[in-house]
Design goal:
This protein is elongated. The chain has one domain. It is an all-alpha fold. The mean pLDDT is 92.
């Protein structure tokens, strides 16, 4: 949880329900990041130039 921005002192005061909720949120975020990484790797290794350009446009803010 510290890696996700929670201070150690704050974590000590969290309830079990809060810890469960924060860990679930962190897990969802990590799953989304891994899915995005997989998409980038698959497109980069197997996609044509148009697919790569579309993905690049999609991920740029």
């Amino acid at each position: 949880m510290i890696g996700a921005g929670h201070a150690y002192a704050d974590i000590l005061d969290y309830t079990l329900a809060q810890i469960d909720a924060f860990l679930a949120a962190i897990e969802r975020q990590e799953s989304q990041q891994l899915a995005s990484l997989l998409s980038v790797i698959a497109t980069g290794s197997q996609g044509d130039s148009k697919a790569i350009a579309r993905l690049l446009k999609e991920i740029q803010c």
